[in-house]
């Protein structure tokens, strides 16, 4: 057996408003929680439903002493609807003014752009110039490698790479030389480790700049 589905929020709000309209009196929350189920609104939902009505100015909430009373009259709904209407009317007027301003801008931009033989010819010439510009731009890209600035950047990069290669060569040989000087009895084993284990032979040496381009 399927569970009975609860009422939608808007229908709950309408049911609770009926309670107020029928008596037009003041109610404590606990009184509303007792009356709500008679209209189909479960007790647990009454507080949230009433608060939503208060937030929308459809129910007034007044504290008298230590008690909080709720009240709603048909005039409250009328006032709320009137406020909504006034806001919408204001939005419509603002949108109309905005539309009129955009129309004026559109008309102003159209001046001097009326269709004519001169305008068509000018647009045609503009397209030809743009096509020529794009062709020249593509052609320049083909010669980018011969650009002096690009060539200088390549030379600078080679210089940096050359210095880095020699620096790492020093990093390799300096520890080997230090170990050979301080542990001569292990020099032969060290040479064997460099050549056979790591693959570094006496052929490894500093690079001359002339070998990498100048």
From TrEMBL:
Superkingdom, taxonomy of origin = Eukaryota
Where is the protein found, in the record's own terms?
Answer: Nucleus
Membrane-spanning regions, if any?
none
Kindly indicate whether the keyword Coiled coil belongs to this entry.
yes
Would I find Nucleus among this entry's keywords?
Answer: yes
Task: Return the GO cellular component terms, semicolon-separated.
Answer: nucleus
User: Domain Leucine zipper with capping helix: where?
Assistant: 150-206
Provide the GO biological process annotations: DNA recombination; meiotic cell cycle
Q: What keywords does the record list, in alphabetical order?
A: Coiled coil, DNA recombination, Meiosis, Nucleus
| Boundaries of every Mnd1 HTH domain copy | 16-73
Instruction: State the coiled-coil residue ranges.
Output: 78-146
Query: Would you identify the family this protein belongs to, as annotated?
Result: Belongs to the MND1 family.
Q: What does this protein do?
A: Required for proper homologous chromosome pairing and efficient cross-over and intragenic recombination during meiosis.
Name assigned to this protein: Meiotic nuclear division protein 1 homolog
